[in-house]
Amino acid sequence: MIACISKSLQANLITENAAIVAKVTQEVNSRYAQYQRQHQEFVGHLNGQITQIEQQLTQIMAAPPPQQQPPPPPTQGKANW
Fold this sequence. Notes:
- The chain is built from two helices and no strands.
- By secondary structure, the protein is mainly α.
- It has a domain at about 20-55.
- The relative contact order is 0.04.
């Protein structure tokens, strides 16, 4: 009996508040779509950054290693501190 009352009450609430539920549902769906677009833009930006860094890394790895210069000869005498 309680389950029947509960289902009846639920059906009445849905019917009475259908306009509000529809409005809230539309707002939630709209906000979700905005977040999806924002996320896709961010992913695109990050992928562009990754590609750029990978290209720079490839150029660095292809360049000949810098030659090390020998250290300067030690100076004679006292240090000027």
